[in-house]
Design a protein that fits this description.
By secondary structure, the chain is of the alpha+beta class. 28% of the residues lie in helices and 39% in strands. The chain folds into 2 domains: 3-157, Nuclear Transport Factor 2, Chain: A, CATH 3.10.450.50; 163-267, OB fold (Dihydrolipoamide Acetyltransferase, E2P). The protein contains 6 helices and 16 strands. Strands 2-1-6-5-4-3 form a 6-stranded mixed beta sheet, covered by helices on one side. A hairpin with a 4-residue loop joins strand 15 and strand 16 (248-250). It starts with a helix and ends with a helix. Residues 133-137 and 139-145 have low confidence and may be disordered.
Length: 270
Amino acid sequence: MTKNQEAELVRLTQQCWQHYWQLDMDFMLSYCDEKVTWIGAEQNEFIRGLDNLKKNFAELLQHLRTCHLLNQEFYAQQCGKNTCTVIGRYLVTTDETNDYFLQAQQRCTFVWGVKNKAYKIIHIHVSNPMGELKVAKGERFVNTVGYMANKYLEENFKQRFFGKQITITDVNGAVRFIYLSEIMYVKAHRNDLVIVTTGENIEVKISISQFMELADSKFLKVHRSYAINTDFMMKLERYTVTMKNGEQIPIPVKKYNGVRDVMIKMHNCK
């Protein structure tokens, strides 16, 4: 084969995988020889013949998610007069439209032949690095791993951008999971505590002192009945602090200077 033909087969191999991972398997199948063989990453993927491969792909479509390829490398190897082997490796990465995230390395070997002046795929071998992915029982694709990875990323994102989460029971007995960064301030109400968040007010059966034990360093008790999240403080003036929702929190006269000094130190301002 000429160098131009080798380059064309490298391009076609890459296109076959692009279409495959966009769930358009007909593109690859259109180039397959009637006697094509496929050895895949699954234990039972040892397939002979185009009809059997079509059946396998039809079953796979029920499990796969759309993906795109990153870090692609494809090379023509051991090309003769009428055959050419193309090897490749790439990262399979789920599209953003999916409900989970997954990324895994995959390697492939395509053996191309020329029949009746047309390029035909004679053999395909696909593999993943040993132990990289675990398929749950009854699955043909690593969906469970993908959901677990997505959950991990979501929690990691929340931890980075929302910080610590507290678990607390409200007055109705419901268990609430609240990120401290969503709390603007808390205020004592009779024997309970009202947690004012960016989305709702939650009444819980704990004291303000108990809440401060759960809170992080951004919270400051400015009054015996109030503790504020200083990230939501908009204005400090004599004996009041105005929050970003417009609420004015009272500061006792005797505590004002001490509260002011702490707030200045927390925000590194003069």
